[in-house]
């Protein structure tokens, strides 16, 4: 089963929690045991799993990525569309995450959530959620 959701980002860089939406899709799937794949088909956006209780964690992730991968650091790709740092960040974090589904419930830790990390917004982003046995 595959469902696509649309996310509108509002900032150049941000992390948006989509845990509730993914949990609802898993619940409606009627799949008791399986795998849930969350994937973004975008080169400057990623899917991450991390703490979703304290919003400061997201701020810290973005701040640290910006220290490691500074904006406009003489990247060759900036000559084309000026977003090389966004591509590098997305490549490091990756476009997908896989999670176990057990007894019809997405298996996340107590403080874990699923989020998309936007590095070249604002944009309209598509997120595919695939659930299979």
* Low-pLDDT regions: none
Which bin fits the share of residues in helices? 25-40%
CATH architecture: Sandwich
| The CATH homology group name | YjbQ-like
Number of domains in the coordinates? 1
- Alpha-carbon distance between the termini? 10 Å
Strand content: 35-45%
Text of the CATH class: Mainly Beta
Mean pLDDT, all residues: 97
Our Rg estimate from Cα atoms comes to 16 Å
Total number of strands? 8
Shape: elongated
Strand order of the largest sheet: 1-8-3-5-6
What's the SSE pattern?
EEHEEHHHEEEE
Task: Output the structural class.
Answer: alpha+beta
**Count of alpha/pi helices:** 4
Largest sheet: 5 strands, antiparallel
What topology emerges from the helices and strands here?
Elements: E1 2-8, E2 14-17, H1 19-29, E3 34-39, E4 45-51, H2 56-68, H3 78-81, H4 84-93, E5 96-102, E6 105-106, E7 112-118, E8 124-132
Antiparallel strand pairs: 1-8, 2-7, 3-5, 3-8, 4-7, 5-6
What descriptors fit this protein?
8 strands; three-stranded antiparallel beta sheet; 4 helices; elongated; 37% strand; alpha+beta; 133 residues; single chain; Jelly Rolls; five-stranded antiparallel beta sheet
């Amino acid at each position: 089963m595959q469902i696509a959701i649309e996310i509108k980002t509002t900032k150049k860089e941000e992390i948006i929690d989509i845990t509730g939406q993914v949990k609802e899709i898993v619940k409606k799937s009627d799949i008791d045991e399986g795998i849930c794949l969350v994937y973004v088909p975008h080169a400057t956006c990623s899917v991450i799993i991390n703490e979703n209780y304290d919003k400061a964690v997201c701020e810290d992730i973005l701040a640290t990525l910006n220290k490691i991968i500074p904006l406009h650091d003489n990247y060759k790709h900036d000559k084309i569309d000026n977003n090389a740092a966004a591509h590098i960040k997305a490549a490091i974090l990756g476009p997908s995450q896989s999670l176990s589904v057990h007894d019809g419930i997405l298996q996340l830790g107590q403080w874990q959530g699923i989020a998309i990390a936007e590095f070249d917004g604002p944009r309209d982003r598509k997120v595919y959620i695939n659930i299979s046995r």
